[in-house]
Specification:
- This protein is α+β, with helices and mostly antiparallel strands.
- The chain has a domain at about 45-150.
- Helix content is about 35%, strand content about 25%.
- It has a six-stranded antiparallel β-sheet, covered by helices on one side.
- The chain is elongated and about 75 Å long.
Length: about 150
């Protein structure tokens, strides 16, 4: 039996097309970062309400959420609940670990004039826009801000 050698090379026009897409992608990113052209930025808004929060992990797995300024307990996160809040906290604390920032983990929960809600780490500058994650997840954090009225 005679075997035929198969030509398994990639056509040149396909390689050139792939290379062109890669080069154009890098160029678009560089232009966007340097000029802001083509980037969708959220306009800054004025803070309507802010709360500095401490999250204290307990030996039994709960997390106490405390108002940094008053020292009052805002909420108790059960070990098997509040997965979204815990996930966001993991993201914020991971950034601290990466940057080797130590000290008290105080996070700033902010309600903006345009209705957005965000949580930020003043130590790293990282901020999560919570409205992007759906109403239920937004409400999980909104209750931490709303509880201010109850604690007065």
């Amino acid at each position: 039996m005679h075997e035929h050698a198969r030509d398994e090379t990639i056509p040149r026009f396909l390689l050139r097309s792939i290379l062109a897409v890669i080069v154009l992608s890098f160029a678009a990113v560089i232009i966007g970062q340097n000029t802001g052209l083509g980037l969708r930025m959220t306009p800054e808004s004025t803070a309507v309400e802010q709360r500095r929060l401490l999250f204290e992990n307990q030996p039994a797995g709960e997390t106490i959420v405390r108002d940094k300024d008053t020292g009052r307990i805002v909420a108790l996160l059960e070990p098997d609940g509040d997965g979204f809040i815990r996930g966001v906290l993991r993201g914020l604390t991971r950034s601290r670990a990466t940057m080797r920032i130590e000290g008290e983990e105080v996070f700033l929960l902010t309600l903006w004039e345009d209705g957005r809600l965000s949580i930020a780490d003043p130590a790293t500058g990282e901020r999560f826009e919570l409205n992007s994650f759906g109403r239920d997840n937004l409400n999980a954090f909104a209750r931490l801000l709303a509880s201010r009225e109850e604690s007065r």
